[in-house]
């Protein structure tokens, strides 16, 4: 099964003989090593996401039914995704804050698409320990900053889903997305 | 003791087997087993050549797309293809937009749940969906098809001996029952509602000839859609659905074997080297 | 557990000395398959199959663990998860085909290994324990392979499970309760599938453990050799490493080439098309056959067609099938010839080759449909199989006149090389 890892110079005579013979033995063992690596690669790769998982790696969301002030909870890559249409008031509240005072300084404009400032699309995963914050559903506690509130350890997010209070270190993550039409986005 | 016991056991088994043989041989001679109609009239699949024949053959995407068209316009009315997803069509040369359109416009809609009422409903297909089945379940399939359930076609060419040729032969093999057959096996007349086909295991199948006229589909690439051509194309398409990784497998095989030949050659030289001093006459 | 002239493990590096003091694992390996194990210098290529069987077991365990990562042991999804592995998992088709064909290759090398043992008398004293442990491995392999074949939940999986567990149903009185107990139901179902999966995962590791015992038992007397003459001195042996590691490396290369040809270019050649049809308890395939490596035993099972007074033919077939394997456990005491190697036993040699042909015929009949003339042929072939081991071998041992044996391994080797060089046999130089 194994190739010889080292070869004693038994029965070899002459300098040249030693070198030529050693070369072939070393080459044979090296080839076995390359072969082993070639076998290991697919064994590692098989644990990567399979084609059917990757096929669901992007999600289309229809925005037409979401009224200002409303949010929906959907899924993106098997995790909750919050899609919210902000009201004028919420936008104003978010813009009022000086980003430099924030734990994770970002403006609302940086967190939304140009000209579509009212559409706030974030992951519904608290950046503290991964719980799902409240606030996307009708009547849920939106915390003291009017955005999202994580019940696990009390992180509060503001109307731009930026962290304002509690243990979470970062704002709610904004996934990569683009508008495919005025009322539809493609996430991922 | 062991040997005496063994002798007796051996004598018993061997003796009884020989007696069984004589009993069997006697009845074989006195009453030779009757030939069955399947035995006499079943035919092995026709010979037909495909681009993927042989150890290095490859799929012809043009042909697979034509075959897909036949599946879509003819077969899919009754047969499911449940292990294949729309996204897999990228493997036969469709681009993302085309796949999206195919999925969206597929006649059979994908089962879904009405978000408002929670009742079973359907929606347009998306590339990640598998080809939806034409029937909700086996009972519905049997009820709609004279009690015969149309089998899933995803793996059909691997589920039959010489599957690609089998599908082609079956599709082109419908015919009148030969007079010769009825002369020798008067009881074997094809029952009402079944169709005679010598390439089918028991000669009579429930499926009516699905490809019955030249030009049943219209090919976009200008190929003449004869029954023979359509049968070949759909057989090729079903070979792909059953073994979509065929080309990857063969490519990997060539590389692996070349590598192993060199490695084994080196291993042989190393083996000869190491043994050089031991393989000499004193 | 070795010859006195075996090389001693002497670690030079301080780290290796430290390891050797705390856990002498490198020493164990050195003495088991390294330079510390002296092996007869005249082993031929048939002695490669032990190491190749180990390689096959390794391939099965690695690819099997991978398959288990993607498999769902539930009758609703099992077939689909295997298909999904083939289609969507990265390199999944490679893992699945390697696992399915790896089983076949495991049996091929093990059968060659067993026939090597039969021809060269490897089962004889002082190596009976090696032979017995080898048979235990063989039985475990059969159980593992059978249960593994059920897992994809195709038509052959289902009906194979039904037929094989049905064999136990042939046992009078307790048979049916045993069958129900084995299946966890009245027919193969979810309970059966889950326990088969559990055991299919467990047994290969049991096999690996028995392999270690098999090698341990081998190292007590040391390896046999084609002459069957025991090792007499240092001139008769070479260290396992590098001599046999090099030879086994070459053998492994040939094995892998043949494996790759099947795996990449004809992966379904040894399989059965019906197993690409999902299990259907309401429709039996026209022709149920097990995998090819069970065919000889399947032929013996079906060869019994006539009841023996109150014993039904079905039960006889089951008993004979089990007996055909169990009788091998008695082989060391059935063949009492003092000469070990078939090369020096002219009568034995003739019958050995008849046995090989007989097993091939049984295999062919076992794979054929249960119709005439295959049943009649398998009856005669099965009769010979039992007669060979239980009647003929003990008799040959008593009446045969063996050829003269060489005085030592070295003498035999030198005679061979001298012949090849066209010179008269030389006396050992030592």
Automatic annotation (TrEMBL), chain A:
Bilayer-spanning residue ranges: 23-44
Cofactor annotation: [2Fe-2S] cluster
Matching SUPFAM superfamilies: ISP domain (SSF50022)
Gene Ontology molecular function, alphabetical: 2 iron, 2 sulfur cluster binding; metal ion binding; quinol-cytochrome-c reductase activity
Catalytic activity: a quinol + 2 Fe(III)-[cytochrome c](out) = a quinone + 2 Fe(II)-[cytochrome c](out) + 2 H(+)(out)
Main subcellular location of this protein, as a coarse class: membrane
Top enzyme category: translocase
Membrane topology summary: Single-pass membrane protein
Gene3D superfamilies linked to this entry: Rieske [2Fe-2S] iron-sulphur domain, Single helix bin
Compartments reported by the entry: Cell membrane
Highest rank taxon of the organism: Bacteria
Further facts: The Rieske protein is a high potential 2Fe-2S protein.
Similarity field: Belongs to the Rieske iron-sulfur protein family.
This protein's name: Ubiquinol-cytochrome c reductase iron-sulfur subunit
Organism listed in the record: Sphingobium scionense
TrEMBL record, chain B:
Record: residues binding heme c: 75, 78-79, 207
InterPro entries per UniProt: Cyt_c-like_dom, Cyt_c-like_dom_sf, Cyt_c1
Gene Ontology terms: cellular component: membrane
Subcellular location: Membrane
Transmembrane segments: 252-271
GO molecular function list: electron transfer activity; heme binding; metal ion binding
UniProt entry tagged with the keyword Disulfide bond: no
Key words of the record: Heme, Iron, Membrane, Metal-binding, Transmembrane, Transmembrane helix
Pfam families, per the entry: Cytochrom_C1 (PF02167)
Domain called Cytochrome c: residue spans: 62-242
Cofactor: heme c
Main location: membrane
Cofactor note: Binds 1 heme c group covalently per subunit.
Chain segments annotated as coiled-coil in the UniProt record: none
Top-rank taxon, per record: Bacteria
Entries under Gene3D superfamilies matching the protein: Cytochrome c-like domain, Cytochrome c1, transmembrane anchor, C-terminal
Protein name: Cytochrome c1
UniProtKB/TrEMBL annotation, chain C:
GO MF annotation, one: metal ion binding
Superkingdom, taxonomy of origin: Bacteria
InterPro entries cross-referenced by the UniProt entry: Cyt_b/b6_C, Cyt_b/b6_C_sf, Cyt_b/b6_N, Cytb/b6-like_sf, Cytochrome_b, Cytochrome_b_C_euk/bac, Cytochrome_b_N_euk/bac, Di-haem_cyt_TM
Record-linked SUPFAM superfamilies: a domain/subunit of cytochrome bc1 complex (Ubiquinol-cytochrome c reductase), Transmembrane di-heme cytochromes
Record keywords, A-Z: Electron transport, Heme, Iron, Membrane, Metal-binding, Respiratory chain, Transmembrane, Transmembrane helix, Transport
CDD domains with a match to the protein in the record: cytochrome_b_C, Cytochrome_b_N
Pfam families tied to this protein: Cytochrom_B_C (PF00032), Cytochrome_B (PF00033)
GO cellular component, one term: respiratory chain complex III
Cofactor section: heme b; heme
UniProt function note: Component of the ubiquinol-cytochrome c reductase complex (complex III or cytochrome b-c1 complex), which is a respiratory chain that generates an electrochemical potential coupled to ATP synthesis.
Family membership: Belongs to the cytochrome b family.
Record's protein name: Cytochrome b
């Amino acid at each position: 099964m194994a190739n010889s890892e080292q070869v004693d110079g038994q029965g070899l005579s002459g300098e040249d003989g030693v070198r030529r013979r050693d070369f072939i033995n070393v080459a044979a063992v090296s080839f076995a090593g390359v072969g082993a690596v070639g076998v290991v690669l697919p064994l590692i790769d098989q644990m990567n996401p399979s084609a059917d998982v990757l096929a669901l790696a992007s999600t289309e969301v229809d925005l037409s039914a979401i009224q200002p002030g409303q949010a929906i909870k959907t899924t993106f890559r098997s995790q909750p995704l919050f899609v919210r249409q902000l009201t004028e008031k919420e936008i104003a509240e978010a813009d009022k804050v000086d980003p430099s005072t924030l734990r994770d300084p970002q403006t609302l404009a940086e967190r939304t698409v140009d000209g579509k400032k009212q559409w706030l699309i974030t992951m519904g995963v608290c950046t503290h320990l991964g719980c799902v914050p409240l606030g996307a559903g009708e009547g849920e506690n939106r915390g003291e900053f009017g955005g999202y509130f994580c019940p696990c350890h009390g992180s509060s997010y503001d109307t731009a889903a930026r962290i304002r209070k509690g243990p979470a270190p970062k704002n709610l993550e904004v996934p990569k997305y683009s508008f495919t039409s005025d009322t539809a986005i493609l996430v991922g | 003791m062991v040997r005496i016991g063994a002798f007796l056991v051996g004598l018993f088994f061997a003796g009884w087997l020989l007696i069984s043989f004589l009993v069997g041989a006697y009845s074989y001679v006195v009453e030779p087993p009757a030939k069955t109609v399947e035995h006499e009239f079943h035919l092995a699949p026709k010979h037909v050549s495909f681009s993927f024949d042989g150890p290095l053959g490859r799929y012809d995407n043009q042909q697979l797309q034509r075959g897909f068209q036949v599946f879509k316009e003819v077969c899919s009315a009754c047969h499911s293809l449940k292990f294949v997803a729309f996204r897999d069509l990228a493997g036969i040369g469709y681009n993302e937009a085309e796949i999206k359109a195919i999925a969206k416009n597929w006649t059979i809609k994908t089962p879904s749940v009405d978000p408002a009422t929670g009742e079973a409903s359907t929606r347009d297909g998306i590339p990640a969906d598998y080809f939806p089945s034409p029937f909700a379940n086996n009972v519905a399939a049997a009820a709609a098809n004279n009690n015969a359930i149309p089998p899933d076609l995803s793996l059909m060419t691997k589920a039959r001996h010489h599957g690609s040729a089998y599908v082609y032969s079956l599709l082109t093999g419908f015919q009148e029952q030969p007079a010769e057959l009825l002369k020798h096996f008067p009881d074997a007349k094809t029952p009402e509602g079944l169709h005679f086909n010598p390439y089918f295991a028991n000669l009579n199948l429930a499926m009516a000839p699905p490809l019955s006229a030249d030009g049943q589909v219209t090919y976009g690439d200008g190929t003449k859609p004869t029954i023979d051509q359509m049968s070949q194309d759909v057989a090729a398409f079903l070979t792909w659905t059953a073994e979509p990784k065929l080309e990857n497998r063969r490519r990997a095989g060539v590389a692996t074997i070349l590598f192993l030949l060199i490695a084994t050659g080196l291993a042989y030289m190393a083996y000869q080297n190491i043994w050089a001093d031991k393989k000499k006459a004193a | 557990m070795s010859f006195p002239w075996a090389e001693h493990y002497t670690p030079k590096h301080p780290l290796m000395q430290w390891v050797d003091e705390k856990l002498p694992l490198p020493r164990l390996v050195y003495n088991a398959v390294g330079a510390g194990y002296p092996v007869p210098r005249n082993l031929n290529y048939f002695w490669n199959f032990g190491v190749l069987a180990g390689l096959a077991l390794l391939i099965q365990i690695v690819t099997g663990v991978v398959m288990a990562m993607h498999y769902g042991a539930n009758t609703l999804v099992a077939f689909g998860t295997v298909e999904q592995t083939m289609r969507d998992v990265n390199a999944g088709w490679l893992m699945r085909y390697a696992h399915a064909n790896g089983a076949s290759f495991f049996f091929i090398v093990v059968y060659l290994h067993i026939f090597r043992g039969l021809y060269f008398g490897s089962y004889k004293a002082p190596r009976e324990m090696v032979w017995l442990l080898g048979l235990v491995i063989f039985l475990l392999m059969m159980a593992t392979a059978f249960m593994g074949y059920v897992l994809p939940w195709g038509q052959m999986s289902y009906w194979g499970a039904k037929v094989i567990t049905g064999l136990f149903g042939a046992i009078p009185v307790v048979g049916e309760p045993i069958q129900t107990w084995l299946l966890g139901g009245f027919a193969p179902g979810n309970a059966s599938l889950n326990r088969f999966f559990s055991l299919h995962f467990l047994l290969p590791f049991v096999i690996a453990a028995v392999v270690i015992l098999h090698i341990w038992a081998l190292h007590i007397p040391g390896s046999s050799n084609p002459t069957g003459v025991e090792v007499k001195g240092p001139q008769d042996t070479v260290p396992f490493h590098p001599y046999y590691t090099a030879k086994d490396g070459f053998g492994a290369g040939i094995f892998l080439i043949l494996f790759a040809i099947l795996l990449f270019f004809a992966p379904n050649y040894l399989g059965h098309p019906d197993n690409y049809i999902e299990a259907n308890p309401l429709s039996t395939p026209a022709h149920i056959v097990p995998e090819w490596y069970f065919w000889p035993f399947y032929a013996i099972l079906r060869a019994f067609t006539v009841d023996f007074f109150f014993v039904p033919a079905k039960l006889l077939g089951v008993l004979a099938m089990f007996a055909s394997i169990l009788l091998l456990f008695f082989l060391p005491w059935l063949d009492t010839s003092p000469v070990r190697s078939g090369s020096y036993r002219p009568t034995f040699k003739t019958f050995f080759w008849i046995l090989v042909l007989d097993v091939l015929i049984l295999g062919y009949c076992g794979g054929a449909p249960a119709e005439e003339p295959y049943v009649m042929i398998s009856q005669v072939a099965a009769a010979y199989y039992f007669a060979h081991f239980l009647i003929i071998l003990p008799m040959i041992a008593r009446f045969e006149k063996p050829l003269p044996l060489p005085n030592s391994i070295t003498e035999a080797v030198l005679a061979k090389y001298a012949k090849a060089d066209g010179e008269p046999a030389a006396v050992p130089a030592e």
